[in-house]
Prior knowledge:
By secondary structure, the protein is an all-alpha fold. It has one domain (9-65). It is built from three helices and no strands. The chain has helices at 9-21, 26-54, 59-65. Helix 1 (9-21) packs across helix 2 (26-54). The longest helix has 29 residues, at 26-54. The radius of gyration is 20 Å and the shape is elongated. The termini are far apart.
Amino acid sequence: MPMTLRLDDHEAxxxxxxxxxxxxxMQDVARQAVREYVESHSRADLLDDVLDDELPRYAExxxxxxx
Length: 67
């Protein structure tokens, strides 16, 4: 699905410089950044869910280990 990404001058300049440094298009750099952001946050959300489910099971053991 096409979309328009509006950047301020500073953001656009930073993206332009990064793309030039990597010999890539601004679009390619931005798309990779979005993929990395989504992947990173998806893993963090999954880990948070697992910890929320599992930590209570081991709370007593963790408390004892901390003594």
